Amino acid sequence: MAALAPPVATVRTAVRRALAGLTGDGPVLVACSGGADSLALAAATAFVAPRSGRRAGLVTVDHGLQPGSAERAGTVAGWACEQGLDPVDSIAVTVDGRPGGPEAAAREARYQALVDTARRHGAAAVLLGHTRDDQAETVLLALARGAGPRGLAGMPVRRELAGVPLLRPLLDVSREDTRKACAALGLTPWEDPHNADPAYARARVRADVLPALVAALGPGVLENLARTAQLLAADTAALDDLAATALADTRSPDGGLRVDGLTALPAAVRTRVLHAWARELGASPAALSHRHVVALDALVTHWHGQGPVHLPGGLRVARRATRLTVVDPV
Ligand SMILES: Nc1ncnc2c1ncn2[C@@H]1O[C@H](COP(=O)(O)OP(=O)(O)OP(=O)(O)O)[C@@H](O)[C@H]1O
């Protein structure tokens, strides 16, 4: 018997670990674009899942944004059926008419389709193919825009969207290994032209910045960036827990927040409380910025009678005596 190529074993081990932590007995669905990362993930899942007593299927989304996208989706779905993956779905989505740029609109449509499909099949989880290299890129992009620990924590290994667990089993696996695993299995990945398009910041980081970092600082730099994300994810989760408790403790009966309770908190917890409260009031997370939270915090720590703080969504928050409270829009 031919020896198993090490990258194939690496990807299978990562998938085995992810499946071991799952509850519920529905199938897992691999979200597969046909690119090297999610193709290697799908091949590994087709091998590992049945041996772990779990059904595995695949979903591929056709965004309809590039010529030939329907054929690509059909090829991926056909391959998946040959691998014994079941169920297999190819979902066409409409990206036009959604808010945000084309990339954000495509992502939103894709996640919606993935979650809808998972719910339809009662899936235990959706598996995404993000790798360690994707995580390193995410951390660098977050650093470049001055993100806080939440941004630097990168993409989580697990999160829930509309009640569906989304897992990223390959966050510790390099892109080089997913490519090598595909080659060892005789699979030809689809090359997404967007990945090489210098119009996108992520593509420029991938093509220019990461290779320069590796050349200057050595090959360990990608693993180190991903580790930074992991460490910050743990710290962020702990601070979020503290903030949730503090938010409950500082609420006043009218739904506002007590200034004395806020003043007693460390800044890292207080700003999280203010951020969480603003979201709860209806400020959209995408529009709520560091500047808004700093202005809310100043109502607590640098009070000199200043006027209300304007938050996204037309909300206004003012200090009234010893409370922060929502005031009527102008
Ligand atoms: N069209 C799609 N259909 C289904 N899943 C997708 C699609 N596009 C992306 N995904 C999922 O999202 C993950 C991240 O995709 P993205 O395009 O951001 O990264 P990538 O590194 O190019 O991944 P890949 O090599 O798998 O295409 C993919 O690995 C896959 O799990």
Which terms would index this structure?
single chain, 330 residues, alpha/beta, Rossmann fold, Uridine Diphospho-n-acetylenolpyruvylglucosamine Reductase, domain 3, 2 domains, six-stranded mixed beta sheet, four-stranded antiparallel beta sheet, 12 helices, 13% strand, elongated, binds adenosine-5'-triphosphate, tRNA_Ile_lys_synt_N, ligase, tRNA processing
Termini, distance in Å? 76 Å
The dominant shape is elongated
Structural class: alpha/beta
At the fourth level of CATH, the homologous superfamily of the largest domain is: HUPs
- Helix percentage range: 40-55%
Could you spell the SSE succession in H and E letters?
Answer: HEHEHEHEHHEEHHHEHHHEEE
Q: What is the number of beta strands?
A: 10
CATH third-tier fold name of the largest domain = Rossmann fold
Number of helical regions: 12
Mean pLDDT: 94
Q: Radius of gyration in whole Å, from Cα? A: 23 Å
The CATH class label of the largest domain is Alpha Beta
Largest sheet: 6 strands, mixed
**Adjacency order of strands in the biggest sheet:** 3-2-1-4-6-5
Catalytic activity: cytidine(34) in tRNA(Ile2) + L-lysine + ATP = lysidine(34) in tRNA(Ile2) + AMP + diphosphate + H(+)
Binding site for ATP: 33-38
Domain tRNA(Ile)-lysidine/2-thiocytidine synthase N-terminal: 28-207
Protein name: tRNA(Ile)-lysidine synthase
